[in-house]
Amino acid sequence: MKNLLSVQEQLRSGKSDLEEIASQYLERIKEINPAVNAMVQFDEKSVQDEAGRISKKIKDGSAGPLAGAVVGVKDVLCERGKKVTCSSAMLKDFESVYDASVIRSLREKDALLIGRCNMDEFAMGSSNENTIFGPARNPVDTEYVPGGSSGGSAAAVAADMCDVSLGSDTGGSIRQPAAYCGVVGLKPTYSRVSRYGLVAFASSFDCIGPIGKNVTDTALVLQHIAGHDTMDNSSSRKPVDDYLKGLESEDRKLRIGVPEEYFGEGLDDNVRKLIEEQISALEKDGAKIVPVSLPHTKYGIATYYILATAEASSNLARYDGIRYGHRADFREIEEELGKETRAIEKDIKNAVGAGKEEAIERLSALDSPLVRLYKKSRTEGFGDEVKRRIMLGTYVLSAGYYDAYYAKAQKVRRLIKEDFESVFSDVDVVVSPTAPTTAFKVGENQDDPISMYLNDVYTISANLAGICGISVPAGTHPNGLPVGIQFMGNSFRETDILQAARRVEMINGAGS
């Protein structure tokens, strides 16, 4: 498999042509996308026009460092002149008037943006089934989900509709779909990549990162989207490492921590076997394997689903049909309210005594037209999973429950981070399965939110701790579906996890 560096060399030498490459990808999308449903927007003419512009720059030697990279974009990132729906009826008609910082970086460095990718609504989900566009499907076997919420981004790369894609990761939404689809997905350290222009789910968790066919391509894109951004005060000023140069350090002997908590109950036996085989191979390759413990891991799922839903409830409150988002038909609301009012007034006229008092109370309890507009707009605009998380988040933030749930969860989050800080004093990276099972069938877990949430059991800790993580293919399960191995590294140690992932590729004879 060629990586982008070799493609770029061929483009510079004239052996390849970007316009031809773009045409091949567009044809591939038209051929494969009806079955996979990974791309929800693409404009052939604008893609070809942009390919022509970049091609001229390649020929005159003025092209940027990402010229030749064909990139898919998750439909949660603002892109000027494009609809940004977040796969939600709430934003189905929203067109962005500006570029997210990562999109601006890609454009400035001459990446070719080929289309926008399917996702779970507002990035809430683990299967890419919660979407107004219909479920995305796993290109390895379309009866199965591609994972979520960046399922379309992972499926587009796996189905060869683009070289790389951008996803967002709040609790595993880059790494889990990458594992399910058999590609590489990297969640950077929180604040390593600007979130400006990312539609928020949970602001203290959300990260933007790349999904690629190999580690080298993933590192290349990360190199050019990482760094401080004046539009995002939460983005780090810490210098960005040279990730590609770091991949060249093949002689470095990594210290790899194996946490007992990630290999316990709930892990599929064949997934366990594949991961253990990879760990043994890494040890033979010279890595030092160190047993470690992350004792607060067992509280991770509960902590995440308290804190993330609380932040979601707050962030999504802005979509009220007045300032932002879908607005219900006000005329229908007025007509409905008028009918109810007239019916109660008739009851008042006909009632006596307590019956009249009861009818008057019913009349006074009617919602105002404005309150009804809020309710109807949000009812029509949000899907079931988003409503579920808004209600959970509102509950844990409500009076009487804040201290019992939200405040306590924040304390546990701190303990989880301290667990990792302690472990990283002894090891470079921590290894685990990316997900406890392979991909499940479309519709299999749709009515079981708890089973769906447990798909994140190995990925959410990195988001809680704010550290970096990567999933890289670890082999094929006996059921024929891909399995991913995850490496987590300390804050701003993306080079460490990229090196570990690259070693797995080399051991397995993958990448280039």
From TrEMBL:
It catalyses: L-glutamyl-tRNA(Gln) + L-glutamine + ATP + H2O = L-glutaminyl-tRNA(Gln) + L-glutamate + ADP + phosphate + H(+). Its EC number is 6.3.5.7. The active site is at residues 74, 149, 173. One of its GO terms (cellular component) is glutamyl-tRNA(Gln) amidotransferase complex. It comes from the Bacteria. GO terms for molecular function: ATP binding; glutaminyl-tRNA synthase (glutamine-hydrolyzing) activity; transferase activity. GO terms for biological process: translation. Residues 20-498 form the Amidase domain. The keyword Nucleotide-binding applies. InterPro entries: Amidase, Amidase_CS, Amidase_dom, AS_sf, GatA. Keywords: ATP-binding, Ligase, Nucleotide-binding, Protein biosynthesis, Transferase. Heterotrimer of A, B and C subunits. Belongs to the amidase family. GatA subfamily. Allows the formation of correctly charged Gln-tRNA(Gln) through the transamidation of misacylated Glu-tRNA(Gln) in organisms which lack glutaminyl-tRNA synthetase. The reaction takes place in the presence of glutamine and ATP through an activated gamma-phospho-Glu-tRNA(Gln). This is Glutamyl-tRNA(Gln) amidotransferase subunit A. The gene is gatA.
